[in-house]
Input
Amino acid sequence: MIKLAPSILAADYADLRNEIRKIEEAGASYLHLDVMDGHFVPAISFGMCVITSLRKITDIVFDVHLMITDPERYIEDFAKCGADIITIHVEACSCIDETIDKIHALGLKASIAINPKTPVEKIIPYLDKVDMILVMSVEPGFGGQKYIDDCTQKIVQVRQMIEERHLDVDLEVDGGIGKGNVKMVVDAGANVIVAGSAVFNGDVQQNVNDIMNAIHAD
Ligand code: DX5
Ligand code: ZN
Output
């Protein structure tokens, strides 16, 4: 089954309760939470306080994407505020094995992300340790960017690596995805789709329906 993970980055922050209710009603599987530190990426988004508050109003799976330098410093904090899945970037962490172990020890799912310019080989050492791989299809840091076409090949490669090893690992793709290209991304091998602007700009229910219909079109 393909899972849709709307990114709250594109939501109306003055109305998060309703934005979340809308994606739940529309049938989204995860809520993708983009945490940015102004260091690993230029922008600063939100952190623990916001996630803690949101945890009180929804049971949806929290898919926390840490775009922060040295994420190992904050794993306990994000676990405490309600993360279910924590993604760290291979480019941002110098103790990836230990950090994955830390995430697992706290009872959460662990995921590693690679930027568009990072070769897929970088994830090989962690493939049999993680629950999910996140392939970025835009440079991390901002919503609303255009999908980078070269990333499709990376999705194919990562899916192949997972299949060859008979691993039960999800493959999430994040950035620039909407109804016009989601089928291509799924056909390339993704099974978790992040979408920010394509979900929250306009009618959320309609947008989610359009994306799901596009995935299942022949
Ligand atoms: C980018 C974030 C994405 C972003 C996706 O740095 O990791 O999750 O919110 O937004 P769209 O779907 O608008 O590209
Ligand atoms: Zn993200």
In short: The helical segments are 16-26, 48-55, 75-80, 96-105, 151-164, 182-188, 197-200, 204-215. Residues 179 and 213 are 8 Å apart (CA to CA). The pocket of D-xylitol-5-phosphate (ligand 1) is lined by residues 7, 9-10, 32, 34, 65, 138, 140-145, 174-177, 194-198 (CB under 6 Å).
